[in-house]
Amino acid sequence: MATLITHFGLASLEATWTRSVVCIGTFDGVHRGHQEVIRECVRQSKELECPSIVVTFDRHPASVLRPDRCPPLIAAVAENLRQFYHIGASVVAVIPFNAALSQTPAEDFLQDVLISKMKAERVVVGEDFGFGRDREGTGKWLKDHIHTTLVPEYVDCGKRISSTTIRHLIAEGNVAEASHLLGRSWSISGIVVGGEKLGRTLGYPTINLAMAESYVFPPDGVFAGRCETSLGTYVAAISLGGRPTIPGIGRALEAYLLDYPGDELYGQSVRLEFLDRIRGQERFDSIEALKEQMSRDIEKIGQVVAQ
Q1: Among residues 41, 50, 40, 53, which one has the least CA distance to residue 10?
Q2: pLDDT in tens, 76-99
Q3: Do domains 5-154 and 186-306 have the same CATH topology?
Q4: pLDDT at residue 195, rounded to an integer
């Protein structure tokens, strides 16, 4: 697969093509509905033998427009870029969303950015899409100004798939259903940081990830998952929470990697995929009771991942 060309901002974007097909959206999480929009963009670009360009933003627009109601993100920009690449996009432009952009008239954005800068000949958006000042750039408005394809909302078992629904599912701990709507396992990427090394004393050494507060998190508990590292991907017993059995130990996101060779990952980026929630957080009467439960958790997690 060809390399995905990524531009952060528009200053570095200089078109070497004469026409393109562009899709636009926040694409938080790049769920199955988003994927349909991007795939249609890619399909049309192949038909026209020109680049497919994904235009997205560096933050959720609500962080500027309604900061008190801004939802937590499903995925980091890096994860979204990963999905754009897998779908087959040629170019991605990640535009800083700020107050000035929010007040840009739709006509100016279309002419100055999409047509002049990106050489857009066609635009593909979801049917509920809107952009520009007061979201005046609706699908109907776009159709009056440029060749536009409106992709219908994606429905699964009679229910519309949306980022809002997926956030709620994750926040409830239903990561399995959230993953179904995403079309892949919901994941968190982060840098491995030093922890309390408690897991080593229990016989289950773990890696600890720095947690970003701007992202949605499930309730505390134990999860079956996988961990993608520089050395490979491993079955993971993921723990999120305050570890109430051990006094004085704070909240953490950590994972015990089954069959991991043991090389230290401090300072490296890893990706944790959440497959299912095994149980909620519990307090045990003794360390021995905790160890026994961890052994049962790991056995169950192995079974879940093997399914």
Answers
A1: 53
A2: 999 999 999 999 999 999 999 999
A3: no
A4: 63
The tally of CA atoms less than 13 A away on the side-chain side of residue 177 is: 17
What CATH number labels 5-154? 3.40.50.620
The answer, yes or no, to whether residue 245 has pLDDT greater than 80, is no
CATH architecture entry for 186-306:
Beta Barrel (2.40)
Tell me the domain boundaries of the chain: 5-154, 186-306
* Proportion of the chain above pLDDT 70, given as a percent: 94
The CA-atom distances, in angstroms, between 97 and each of 50, 70, 100 are: 27, 13, 8
pTM above threshold 0.85: yes
